[in-house]
Amino acid sequence: MPTDKTASTQDRLVAHRRQALGAFGALGALAIAACGGGGSSSGTMISASSVATLSGLSVSSGSLSPSFAASTTSYTLSVLNTVSSLTLTPTATDSGATIKVAGSTVSSGSTSASLSLSVGSNTVSVVVTAADGSTTATYTVIVTRATSSTSADATLSSLALSAGTLSPSFASGTTQYTVSELNTVTSITVTANTTVSGATITVNDTSATSGTASDAVALAVGSNTLSIVVTAADGSTTATYTLTVTRATAAAGSCTLTATETDGPYPLYAILTNSILTRKDITEGKTGVPLTLTLTLQDLSNGCTPISGAGIYIWHCDKDGVYSGYATNTNAGSTSTTFLRGVQVTDSNGQVTFTTIYPGWYAGRITHIHAQIYLNDNLVAGSAVATTQLAFPVATTAVVYGSSLYTKGQNTSVTSFSADNVFSDGTSTELVAISGDTTNGYAATMTIAIA
Questions:
Q1: Residues 104-124: pLDDT tens digits?
Q2: What is the mean pLDDT of the segment spanning 255-274?
Q3: pLDDT tier for residue 382 given thresholds of 50, 70 and 90
Q4: What domains lie within the chain, and their CATH numbers?
Q5: 299 closest CA partner among 368, 249, 233, 341
Q6: What is the DSSP letter of 147?
Q7: How many whole angstroms separate alpha carbon 123 and alpha carbon 64?
Q8: Has this prediction a pTM greater than 0.85?
Q9: Which residues contact 295 (CB under 8 A, 6 or more apart)?
Q10: Is-contact 186 176, C-beta < 8 A?
Q11: If residue 191 lies in a helix (H) or strand (E), which one and from where to where?
Q12: Is residue 385 within 8 Å of residue 373, measured between CB atoms?
């Protein structure tokens, strides 16, 4: 049997073996963990990329400025006017990143959808989202599309009149012409063609279309100037063609006696001899569409020759239908006023010209102007040799009353000459010839023939 000493030694040997085995097991476990083995869940995970840059960016037309670099996010690009669309080809640095061009997804290295370009500045954004789903970078390309080339040609290729002949014959480089018209021609139209499309035309400040007859231009007896201004497509180069149109005086027996009409309720004879009335501009600050009125006075009994030295007195209501100098219900507050009344003395051509506004209307009457003739400028009440009224084309009146200044709007009380208590018997000798528009004003002419 073993002694106590022997047993003690064996126990110590067993204990040493157990310690050694435990240490070996621990080292083994550490080795397995280090290699990623075993069933433990405590191993290290690989995180997704946060790289949100591009490694390349190309365009279908033009060149980026500055040249592309991954760290540069703002670029400019200029293209010709003929380039109406553009594509971009972006390439991501990291294969896991996603790309959107102008809001639409594009695969890395692929061409985007075609992007329409307006003339001028266009901003295109390229947004890169990293694989981590949160990191982003935006590359901005400002694309400037040039304007179309514009012509500085402000010439006409042709010019024609509704009546009369140009002298000299038309040539694109000739800008001064004279035209002679018969007395019976009270207005003309102009048809001008621009040499280059895109140029614009005005005739006496009224817009006209190339190749189309202009609005009628009223002609007074004697000299009339027509200015045709051509503005090139570049918007700044201009050329002016000037026509001096001479309308002949009436030939013997060719005029018609102007109808006689009532002087109406508001002639204001009390101030007829007041020197304040002798004036060309009769507006006295009244607003409205401008009207230049030229009257020609002829003597029917003397071969329709012009009458010089005669006083012509005109008066009419303002744009709201109010007459000066009266205090009736419709003219309240106008007692001490003289607006829209005036006298001019005829010149050697029998003509006078007034600067006024297009008349308004009041209940019961269609648009009109009153006129009286005083021979030898004898402005004495009751001595007028003729009294008449001037009528205006209904279509022109409707346009004027539709403008913003004429707040009463259209005349609903009398809508035609046949319904008017003065013009119901006709307006053949009282209708003015008129041209113009509400922006630049109107010019009206009429011949008054007296016996």
A1: 999 999 999 999 999 899 999
A2: 94
A3: confident
A4: 54-145 (2.60.40), 156-247 (2.60.40), 269-450 (2.60.130.10)
A5: 249
A6: P
A7: 13
A8: no
A9: 312, 314, 351, 352, 353, 354, 371, 445, 446, 447, 448
A10: no
A11: strand 190-194
A12: yes
